Structures are given as C-alpha cells and as structure tokens.
Amino acid sequence: MPLPDEQIYPHATGAAEALVAKHQEPQPLVFYAGWFCPYVQRAWIALEEKGIPYQYKEVNPYKKEAHFLAINPKGLVPALEYGGHALYESLIICEFFEDAFPAHTPHLLPTDPVQRARARMAIDQISKTLVPTFQRLLPAADPEAQRTAREAAYSALRAFAAGIKGPWYLGEEFSLVDVAIAPWIVRDYIITENRGYKRAEVGAAWEAYAGRLEKRESVVNTSSLREHMAPIYGRYLRDEAQSEAARAIREGRAIP
Ligand SMILES: N[C@@H](CCC(=O)N[C@@H](CS)C(=O)NCC(=O)O)C(=O)O
After folding, report:
1. Confidence tier at 256 by pLDDT (50, 70, 90)
2. What per-residue confidence (pLDDT) applies to 37?
3. Residues 6+ away with beta carbon under 8 Å from 68
4. What are the residue boundaries of the GST C-terminal domain, all occurrences included (predicted)?
5. Which of 63, 102, 204, 224 is the most buried (most CB within 10 A)?
6. What CATH number belongs to 113-250?
7. CB-based contacts of 210, cutoff 8 Å, min separation 6
C-alpha cells in the first residue's frame, strides 16, 4: 500500500499558493506547515488575521524527516520556531500568538474572563466532539454505519450551533472559536459529496454561519484547490489512511 506522502501534492495551490509566495523571506517566526492540513490552517488563519510576520516552510509530516522531528518530536504539523524555541499543537500555537504579539490586533480571545472561558469551552467542544465526529464519518462505508455517523455529527453540530450568537460564534467579534472550526467547514464538502451530510440538516443558524466563515478573507486565502485535496481524503474515505489521526480513530483512541 503506498504511503500517503507519495500522493500528497508538494505545495499549496490557488489562493494559498499566492500567500505562501509572500511569506518566503526569513523572519523571527518560522511556520512549519502542510498546505492540506486543517490544524495548520487554524494557525495560518490566526497569523493572517493578526498580521504577524512569518516565514512559511512546507513540510510533509508523513515523511518524519529528522530535521522536522527535531522541531516537533510528534512529527505533526503545524509547528513553529521562535527565538530558538520549538512550539506545536494548533490551539496552543494560536494562543501563543495572542500572548507573544499583544500589539497585533484583532485579539482573538475576549478580555473579559467569563467570555474568555466561554470561548475556551466552545473550542473544547470543537476538539472533543466536532472534529472526532467528522473523522468518524469519513471512513463510514456501508449505509447503516454512514447513517449512524451522520446522525452523531448532526447532533454534535446542533449542540455547538445552539451557542452561535452571530455573525460570528461569540457575536460581533471574530474569535479563536471561529478559527478553530473554520478548517472543517472548508472541508465539509467532502462529507457532503460522499457521506450524505447537509449543512441545512444541522439548522439554519449553522448553515448561515458556515457560509460566512468559508468566505472570510483569511479562510479563503489559506485554502488550496479542492482537486489536490481529493487523493488525501480518498484514503480516509476508503479507510486506508495511515496518519496518526486515522489510526487513532480505528483503534478508538483520542485523536492526537
Ligand atoms: N493535535 C495536533 C494535530 C496535528 C495533526 O494531526 N497534523 C497532521 C496533518 S493534518 C499530521 O501532521 N499528521 C502526520 C501523521 O499523522 O503522521 C494539532 O492540533 O496541531
């Protein structure tokens, strides 16, 4: 069975390719990214929203090359090098941008402690329920497994959507909650085309929110062409993917 890295298009395409071209100069912050990765897109959206200078470096995380393992021993993208330190984990990286670049606005977390905690609760919901249901729906092949996985996704999404204040999740201000879910909204056409998922089934508020989010400039500019995504997601749809995430789902473990 071929390894996923043999099928991964080597670089970003479309709007994301143009953005990569603008971020080749050396900078104190080096962003190790894989153009196809939803976790990478989170950090990338946050960088773009805040206008933080960065150097983009493309990595194929499936190759587990020594130079990259020295930065992230888990061998996962996204990762950062900053001031001689290596940092990784998409949500932690996004919060790091808030802490390390306070002069760069907009701030993506509310300053009020209660609102800040609420934002983190919604992000926790994304990590613990929304992303796993998306990952479980992808390999569900037979109609019954698909129906069960789809209903689980709808129910998790409805619970999340009940909290949408509009236009963004927390209200008027675009926040880390929107950043954390946007990459899966950009990719939900995969489950629409292959697994019978419909945004409208979640509800009107979700459909409107998803439509707004996928048109946000930072989201559009960090997205590559769909045609290059197909070989990667094809492996998940056929349940052949050998990524850490795919193995974890198969074995019933938490996603790394
Ligand atoms: N929890 C990590 C997950 C990152 C992750 O799974 N990245 C994938 C690409 S989308 C990866 O590097 N996979 C390499 C592998 O599974 O070996 C985060 O939030 O940054």
Report:
1. confident
2. 97
3. 32, 59, 61, 75, 79
4. 112-232
5. 224
6. 1.20.1050.10
7. 185, 188, 199
| Mean pLDDT for the stretch of residues 129-147 | 95
- Which among 6, 7, 32, 39 is the best mutation to test ligand 1's pocket, defined by most ligand atoms within 8 Å of the CB? 39
CA distance 162 to 121: 13
Residues of the chain with CATH 1.20.1050.10: 113-250
Q: What is the mean pLDDT of residues 35-45?
A: 98
Given a cut of 90, is residue 250 above it in pLDDT? no
Class of domain 4-100: alpha beta
Q: Which residue has the tokens 């946000």?
A: 216
- The crossing angle, in degrees rounded to 10, of helices 143-161 and 204-215 is 80
Q: Ligand 1, closest atom to CA 246?
A: 16
Query: Under DSSP, is residue 31 helix (H, G, I), strand (E, B) or coil?
Result: strand
Pairing of strands 55-58, 79-82: unpaired
